[in-house]
Write a structure and sequence with these properties.
With 139 residues, this protein is α+β, with helices and mostly antiparallel strands. It has one domain: endopeptidase domain like (from Nostoc punctiforme) (endopeptidase fold (from Nostoc punctiforme)), CATH 3.90.1720.10. Helices cover 25% and strands 29% of the residues. It is built from 3 helices and 8 strands, in the order αββααββββββ. A 6-stranded antiparallel sheet has the order 3-8-4-5-6-7. A two-stranded antiparallel ribbon has the order 1-2. Strand 5 and strand 6 form a beta hairpin. Helix 1 crosses helix 2. The longest helix is centred in the first third of the chain and has 17 residues. The relative contact order is 0.20. InterPro entries: NLP_P60_dom (IPR000064), Papain-like_cys_pep_sf (IPR038765), Peptidase_C40 (IPR051202).
């Protein structure tokens, strides 16, 4: 008999957040593995803000600013403990906020990584946890 392993803790998600996450996961499934391309906004290649822009447009029917810098200047800042699916999370790399992804719930976010393209990562993963700076909500 295998030893008992408790199920992972899952944060509760309201119906709106669950619907947002489901729509965004569909877009992620379509583009997972698409390579990183600076300035990219299509299935030929995405940069981080280009992927966010495309995911928001296709999944949620919303238009966001094109660049990470423009995204940082708009939307509502959300405390980390209140982040919900669809919020854009930002990370400091090389001394400035220059990477972003979309929070999906349960400590996961989707993004276009320079190393692996469109992927899913843990917010508290070894690379990301100390680089997280803020989240913004675009409604």
């Amino acid at each position: 008999m295998a030893p008992y392993t408790p199920a992972p803790t899952v944060e509760p998600m309201d119906a709106k957040s669950a619907a947002t996450a489901a729509q965004l996961w569909q877009v992620f499934d379509r583009y997972e593995g698409v390579p990183y391309s600076y300035g990219g906004t299509s299935a030929r290649g995405f940069d981080c803000s280009g992927f966010i822009l495309t995911a928001y447009r296709e999944a949620l029917g919303r238009q966001l600013p094109r660049t990470t810098g423009q995204m940082l200047a708009t939307g509502d800042v959300i405390p980390r403990h209140q982040v919900r699916p669809g919020d854009v999370v930002f990370f400091r790399i090389s001394g400035k906020d220059q990477h972003a992804g979309i929070y999906m719930g349960n400590n996961r976010f989707i993004h276009a990584s320079t190393s692996v393209g469109v992927t899913e990562s843990a917010l508290d993963g070894y690379y990301w946890r100390d680089r997280y700076t803020q989240a913004r909500r675009f409604e």
